[in-house]
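User: Can you fold this complex?
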Amino acid sequence: MDDLSSFFPIAAYWAHLQGLTLHPHLLGLTIFGFLVGGITGFFGVGGRLLMSPLLNALFNIPYNVTVGSDLSQMMGTSTLNLIRFKRMRSIDYKLSAIMLVGTIGGVEIGVQALELLKKAGTFHLFGKSIGYLPLIMSLVYSALLLWIGMIVYREAKASQQDGLVQGLLTTQQPAMTARLQHIHLPPMVSLPVSGIEVISLWVILGVGMATGLLVGFLGAGGGFIRMPALIYVIGCPMVVAIGTDIFEGFFSIGYGTLSHSLKGNIDLLLVVVLLTSSTLGNQTGAVLAKKGGNPKIRQLFAFIAFAVVFILITKFAF
Amino acid sequence: MGPLEVVINSVIGTAPKQPGVQTSFLYILFNLAIPIFLGIILVWITKFIEKGLTLLLGNNR
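Assistant: Here's the predicted assembly.
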């Protein structure tokens, strides 16, 4: 281990075990955090997914530490979102509580899957030693970034033609919502705050588990799945979905942080640097988006996402 | 050693020597509490940034 282990002891410990040479640079990490936060604030959806793979690709920080630390710093951003959220009455607490059961299960499965990969070691391909953890994680992140990049690109293109900004998954949803709300698999629950007369408990638990998996395995907040799922799968009104997403997100991220803490995956200084820089970047990006954002610029996010995928692939190739 | 350095060193000092094997209660507490505490401080800072940037860039969209 080198001198930096005193500043980033957890990252250095796991990097040493995984045969990586750590490149953390305080100024570099601060600028990086600011830029990723700026991208998230400017473009909205999916920006957070860039953090973890790029920390690994640019600074050689092991994936288990990038995921754990990213999640811990999201405790800060979700606290900030919760404080700034003014309409606490619009939160569906009953839905949040039920969903949280599924989410905690999903988070734990995600964390355990990451632990399995962490302990899986390496294999040799063309005389090169490749770790299962970086390989699988890079593939999963690449697939997700390609998917989100394509959705954003298509939406930006469509909104340019229609003059409308459309949300994620807008076209097929009403039919899907109706189908899912007609699944009569007991126990059935009613959600008066969301205006849902009856829905199967299993649908809510399933949504929670899917988002929990993303939280535990990828260190993503899960909002980019939770929000559309709350609106289109469960059938919440937009205002309830926003509040419930923020509220449930806080606790699911909290549980994820706790679980990753117990596995020793969180580097505190990394958390502090990334939280501060990305929050400032996020706010700057959000203000800039209000002033000069237009659908055409949103296409740029797709290119950023594809560029990150390219970086991840080239890291393995060379 | 300045006060900031002392704080950083004591925070870093809670990190387990063998992560995943010996995890101290303080390390877990810090991982949860420090981001929450920082988040609360950042609420005020981001408000200032928002106001400042809005003034700087003008209100017209």
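Residues 25-57 of chain B form the longest helix (33 residues). The mean pLDDT of chain B is 81.
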